[in-house]
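To illustrate the input format used throughout this study, we show a single complete record. The first block contains the structure-token representation of the backbone; no residue identities are included at this stage. The design step must infer an amino acid for every position from geometry alone.
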């Protein structure tokens, strides 16, 4: 739903985008536990939908609640399950067997950076430029596990991060 909403936003169909964000949030309420990062993403995107419809107070309340939910994501990340990954060579497979904990720690450190970046975007609360789903398309994990859930929540937020000057890029 979130990818579809961004596609509609890119096409200039804000009404359909808002409908998809709202529907995505409702699906999240029905099917995701509250500590799932996608719940916070869905609620934040429902806030974007409310803002697009001019319901500023509802948008602010939803965004505030999404920030509260998002504050629990780092704890969720620490306990998330990492499915075994396919490795490109026998060497990498052996390294994974020998040093699996180190691989997991490195992956979780990279994921924590994505969590922090998404948190900045929630704090800023500025609507994302339309249709920016490129990171999701390129970086989404091929394995259907908690890493994919987290990536979806981080990359499909409707909000952009702080504006940066030329020197900050």
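Output of the design step:
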């Amino acid at each position: 739903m979130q990818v579809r909403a961004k596609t509609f936003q890119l096409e200039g169909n804000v009404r359909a985008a808002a409908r998809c964000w709202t529907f995505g949030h409702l699906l999240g309420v029905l099917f995701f536990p509250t500590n799932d990062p996608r719940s916070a993403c869905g609620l934040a995107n429902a806030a974007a939908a409310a803002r697009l419809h001019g319901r500023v107070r509802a948008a602010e309340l939803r965004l505030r609640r999404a920030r509260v939910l998002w504050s629990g994501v780092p704890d969720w990340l620490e306990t998330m399950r990492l499915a075994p990954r396919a490795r490109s060579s026998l060497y990498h497979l052996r390294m994974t067997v020998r040093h699996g904990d180190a691989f997991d720690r490195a992956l979780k450190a990279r994921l924590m950076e994505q969590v922090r970046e998404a948190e900045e975007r929630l704090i800023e609360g500025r609507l994302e430029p339309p249709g920016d789903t490129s990171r999701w398309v390129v970086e989404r994990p091929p394995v259907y596990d908690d890493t994919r859930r987290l990536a979806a929540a981080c990359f499909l937020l409707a909000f952009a991060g702080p504006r940066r000057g030329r020197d900050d890029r």
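Structural context for interpreting the output: The chain is about 70% helix and 0% strand. Strands lie at 126-127, 159-160.
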